[in-house]
TrEMBL record:
Membrane-topology descriptor: Multi-pass membrane protein
Chain's role: Part of the Sec protein translocase complex. Interacts with the SecYEG preprotein conducting channel. SecDF uses the proton motive force (PMF) to complete protein translocation after the ATP-dependent function of SecA.
Gene Ontology process terms (BP): intracellular protein transmembrane transport; protein targeting; protein transport by the Sec complex
Coiled-coil intervals: none
Assembly: Forms a complex with SecF. Part of the essential Sec protein translocation apparatus which comprises SecA, SecYEG and auxiliary proteins SecDF-YajC and YidC.
Organism: Halomonas korlensis
Membrane-traversing stretches: 455-472, 479-501, 507-529, 550-572, 578-602
InterPro entries: SecD (IPR005791), SecD-TM (IPR027398), SecD/SecF_arch_bac (IPR022813), SecD/SecF_CS (IPR022646), SecD_1st (IPR048631), SecD_SecF_C (IPR048634), SecD_SecF_C_bact (IPR055344), SecDF_P1_head (IPR054384)
Protein name according to UniProt: Protein translocase subunit SecD
GO cellular component: plasma membrane
Residues annotated as domain Protein export membrane protein SecD/SecF C-terminal: 438-602
Signal peptide location: none
Length: 616
């Protein structure tokens, strides 16, 4: 019989539509403006007395509180009004000390029964939800100094392996200089080193006991190093942001030495800065023997006890760059630790160093580059200058019991939070050069609310125009198309919510475009049915022929658009990807609603019935 679906197909359509309805519902529950209070170091806890003080302070300021949720060592204060967020944050910050971080947040308000089904609202982009914007500056001078330190260490190891004596090593600007006991040793060293390190220009200075070999890095090598530092930092920052779980972040280069990072939905700038801007790295070094010359050793304090210190070899066994994976856990005594796996080269170097030094101590040196602002007077005016500095501290000094390989663990950490952050930084990769925050700003949700309101208005206007055209042009069939259009929008929102896709302003543009394209298939089908009726076919035959003969054209047209959307997603960034994702999902849901949902409604209305005239 023409125009009849089997029962299983009707049930399938019903299940898909009900699923779409359920998973689109969370988007009807807007997020609550909130203030989040959390520990700055991971150890401080908020007690009941502090909670009551916060409640009283906000009530005295006539700030309406919707709820106060305390969980997992943090306090989330939900507010009734967006305009109270900043005032509430400032008042809470006055009450608490520096052990706590007070930040703006947006709290989910999805009902528990929907959360039980793993239903959650769409993620909103920076232009809609707000978030944080960082402008980072890469310290190229520090990148050059780090590279020279590594090269100098490798040069010293090469000279020692060939038993060529040297007296001292100095690094200044772009040069490495080494002093030898005589010109003959200097000549042998130059001949040996120049083959292994071609990125330097070599020059001799002085004679006899003052024979000095000066190695200056070439301009080309410096430029290559700077490009490498920027690109490596971009990769590392993207990995860190992915570890944070931020949807559709923006991490891109700006100019010769700057990087822009945008994190949609993140209101806690302190936590974001701690992870994104951290320049922590590790160095593994042997402890110096008592008879080691002073020029080959360096003294460092212990990170958790600055009254203690140890003398370490200047040569580095490996750095955090050799770490392939890292995760945090607890040792047999319940203390935090980081489990580390090294790559092939790192494992070989570690095995070689520990195999020949069993019974000797090896230190794990924690290195962190920081900056601080200080005010100086210039021409009688106060000027804020940024001062950069580096902190180095030993977090572990243990005796080598046996040769180590690709896997081992680091202990001596202060807290589980520190262990987790160290594992994250090592897992995501170390920075090739220190970075400093040149600019930071929080984009409030008020701007996003205005954008959302205008975006929804554009969707509503587009939907109304399409509905009006379809009803006037195709009457009853236009009503079918209108219902399918609403279901298409519901499915589109549900799929984006289920996939965790991010909705941006370009994404809303993609939805508007989808609404216009969604009725294209119905227009083709309905016009084809009209043509078949004009050729003299019966109503049932015309409906059947209209859907079957328009199918190929519909699929071809949508596949072409889908391919374009895929290309946009693969080569685009940020807003372009948001538009491509929305458009791609919209094409798939449009095909389903146009070819199956409207056909089901037509079949239920006309299928198997004696119909003499169609209102189309």
């Amino acid at each position: 019989m023409l125009n009849r679906y089997p029962l299983w197909k009707y049930l399938l359509i019903l299940v898909v539509l009900l699923t779409g309805l359920i998973y689109s519902l969370p988007n009807l529950f807007p997020q609550d403006p909130a203030v989040q209070v959390s520990s700055a170091q991971g150890d401080a806890r908020i007690d009941e007395r502090q909670v009551e003080r916060i409640r009283s302070a906000l009530e005295d300021a006539d700030i309406a509180i919707k709820a106060m949720d305390a969980e997992e060592g943090r306090l989330l204060v939900r507010l009734e009004d967006d305009d109270d967020q900043l005032d509430a944050r400032d008042r809470i910050a006055e009450i608490l000390d520096e052990d706590f971080v007070v930040a703006l947040n947006l709290a989910e308000s999805t009902p528990s029964w929907l959360e039980g089904l793993s239903a959650s609202p769409m993620t909103l982009g920076l232009d809609l939800r707000g978030g944080v914007h960082f402008l980072l500056e890469v310290d190229m001078a520090a990148a050059l100094e780090q590279r020279l330190e590594v090269n100098a260490s490798a040069m010293r190891e090469t000279l020692r392996s060939e038993r060529i004596r040297y007296r001292d090593t100095e690094i200044d600007d772009r040069t490495i200089s080494m002093v030898f006991t005589n010109a003959e040793d200097r000549g042998q060293a130059r001949s040996l080193i120049s083959h292994e390190f071609p990125d330097f220009d070599y020059a001799n200075e002085g004679e006899d006991r003052g024979a000095r070999l000066v190695m200056t890095m070439t301009d080309q090598a410096v430029n290559e190093l700077q490009d490498y530092a920027i690109n490596q930092n971009l990769t590392t920052l993207r990995n860190r942001v992915n570890e944070l779980g931020v949807a559709e972040p923006l991490v891109q280069r700006q100019g010769p030495d700057r990087i822009v990072v945008e994190l949609p939905g993140v209101q806690d700038t302190t936590a974001a800065k701690r992870i994104v801007g951290a320049t922590a790295n590790l160095e593994f070094r042997l402890e110096a023997r008592p008879d080691t010359p002073d020029n080959e050793t360096q003294s460092f304090p212990f990170r958790n006890d600055e009254s203690r210190s140890a003398d370490l070899m200047r040569d580095v066994i490996i750095t955090g760059d050799s770490v392939s994976s890292a995760n945090h856990s607890f040792d047999e005594n319940g203390r935090p630790q980081v489990n580390i796996d090294l790559d092939g080269t790192g494992g070989t170097l570690m095995n070689r160093a520990t195999r020949t030094n069993i019974g000797r101590n090896m230190a794990v040196l924690f290195i962190e580059h920081k900056s601080r602002d200080r005010t100086v007077m210039e021409d009688g005016e106060p000027v804020v200058e940024r001062e950069t500095y580096t902190e180095r501290g030993i977090i572990s000094l243990a005796t080598i019991q046996s040769a180590l390989g690709n896997s081992f663990r680091i202990t001596g950490l202060d807290s589980p939070t520190e262990a987790a952050e160290l594992a994250l930084l090592l897992r995501s990769g170390s920075l090739a050069a220190p970075i400093y925050f040149a600019q930071e700003r929080t984009i409030g949700p008020s701007l996003g609310a205005e954008n959302i309101e205008r975006g929804l208005l554009s969707v509503q206007i587009g939907l109304l125009l399409v509905v009006a055209f379809m009803l006037v042009r195709y009457k009853v069939f236009g009503a079918f198309a209108t219902v399918a259009l609403g279901l298409n929008l519901t499915l589109l929102i549900a799929v984006m919510s289920m996939l965790g896709a991010t909705l941006t302003l370009p994404g809303i543009a993609g939805i508007v475009l989808t609404l216009g394209m969604a009725v294209d298939a119905n227009v083709l089908i309905f016009e084809r049915i009209r043509e078949e009726l004009r050729t003299g076919l019966s109503v049932q035959q015309a409906i059947q022929a209209g859907y079957e003969r328009a199918f190929t054209s519909i699929v071809d047209a949508n596949i072409t658009t889908l391919l374009v959307a895929v290309i946009l997603f693969s080569i685009g960034t940020g807003p372009v990807k948001g538009f491509a994702v929305t458009l791609s999902i919209g094409i798939l849901t449009s095909l389903f609603t146009a070819l199956m949902v409207t056909r089901a409604m037509v079949n239920l209305t006309y299928g198997g019935k004696p119909v003499k005239k169609l209102w189309i």
